[in-house]
Structure to design on (203 residues):
């Protein structure tokens, strides 16, 4: 189906997805581990990469999985509930936007890499696996997390078209998420161009 069902049920799904996306696992897990608030250290980002700067790898891993899970869950549930394709797409986009601009934290969120991955897992496991493979290859070569994320974001729409061409609205969501990811990495792009971006394992 191609028309958007903007009924009350659809709006509830989209609003709920945004509220779920606004849950900041980086902040929650840092509190549970009694670590500094990630917004006060490093880049000030609430994502797994910044949480990892605390030295607690398990906290960073839990943050990564939490952020990916919240991207996957509402999108997958909307699919299972038989919502219109356009509504499912908006649910996926809403949870991603929630992570970037969380209502619970004065709309100051993360960069959205893990949450975008969660949404893509719901759309297509092969799409997500391919994007992760791109990230991993670039990271193994460069040891730079931000560069890996940027390359994956640039290629994600192309990969999405390969797996989701019968569902152009899902491809459109991947394009929008990729654009936001690139914009949110603006400071990292500047550091990469200046040659000052931090490599994994180096202080």
């Amino acid at each position: 189906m191609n028309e958007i069902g903007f009924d009350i049920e659809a709006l509830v799904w989209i609003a709920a997805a945004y509220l779920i996306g606004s849950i900041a696992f980086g902040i929650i897990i840092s509190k549970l581990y009694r670590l500094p608030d990630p917004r006060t250290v490093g880049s000030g980002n609430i994502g797994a990469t910044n949480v990892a700067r605390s030295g607690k790898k398990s906290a960073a891993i839990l943050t990564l999985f939490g952020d990916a899970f919240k991207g996957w869950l509402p999108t997958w549930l909307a699919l299972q509930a038989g919502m219109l394709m356009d509504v499912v797409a908006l649910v996926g986009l809403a949870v991603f936007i929630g992570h970037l601009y969380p209502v619970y934290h004065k709309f100051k969120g993360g960069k959205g890499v893990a949450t975008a991955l969660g949404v893509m897992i719901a759309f297509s496991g092969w799409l997500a696996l391919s994007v992760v493979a791109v990230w991993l290859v670039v990271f193994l070569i460069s040891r730079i997390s931000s560069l890996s994320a940027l390359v994956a974001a640039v290629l994600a729409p192309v990969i999405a078209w390969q797996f989701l061409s019968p569902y152009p609205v899902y491809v459109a969501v991947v394009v929008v998420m990729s654009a936001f990811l690139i914009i949110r990495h603006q400071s990292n792009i500047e550091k990469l161009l200046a040659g000052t971006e931090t490599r994994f394992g180096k202080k």
Remarks:
- The two ends are 52 Å apart (CA to CA).
